[in-house]
Amino acid sequence: MSLSFGPNWQRDLWASPYRLRFELDDGEHSGRYVTMFTRSYDRARKLARLALPSDSIVGIIAACSEPSKEMAAEWLGWTTGTAFEHLAELGVSTEAPLAEWAGSWRPDDEEDPEAEAWTQRAVSLTWEQADILLWNQIAHDLGVAPRAPVFAKFVDLARGLCVNAYDDRGMDVTCLNKAPLEELYVQCSGWLLDYDRERMAAVFER
To answer: How far apart are CA 59 and CA 129, in angstroms?
Structure first.
């Protein structure tokens, strides 16, 4: 099974039982923001490289429609320009996308009439650019700057795999098939979220 670009690209992933949930920060350094950030960022970079062992990375990037209305927009320099333009200033251009569409960022928002339809672009990335997007994901909740008003996930279309560092606390690696995640489950078992271990064990140890 594989993934394809478009508004429904996440639907099968959302329903897949093959999901590993990792803890990026274990809370041992609560209140020490530098340590919280660097620990989460380092883990996210390592996990992404293990999940996507290739120099060819595809990112799905969703843009906030009105950056100027976001909290702290003036401090972050978002009062003018688009979300994709702000991301380009960080070093990730989306001007030659592989595909572009509008749709819900979370599949369970599809039935919500008030949910925003995000502009999403699929782009080829270097690992340097992927690291910038990981920084951006982890920076949002911790208030770290610089950052851009976008969200991003990484995909391996052929293997049907998605990497999502959703904030400084955690990262999900989801696949349409079990096999691509089996080694990662064993290799990084110490970083798996404790409260979800029973579900993951039921899937990956049977």
So the answer is: 9
> Model pTM?
0.93
Residue type, position 144, single letter: V
Structure confidence by residue, pLDDT tens digits, 132-183 = 999 999 998 888 899 999 999 999 999 999 999 987 788 999 999 999 999 9
Q: How far apart are CA 39 and CA 27, in angstroms?
A: 10
Q: Angle at CA 97, nearest 5°, toward 111 and 128?
A: 105
Which residue in the block uniquely carries the two structure tokens 């251009």? 93
Buried b / exposed e across 128-154, counting CB within 10 Å, b at 16+? ebbbbbbbbbbbbebebeebbbbbbbb
Q: What angle do CA 160, 162, 163 make, to 5 degrees?
A: 155
Going through 37-185 in order, the beta strands assigned E by DSSP cover 57-63, 99-103, 118-125, 150-156, 161-165, 170-175
Positive or negative: CA dihedral 39, 42, 48, 49: negative
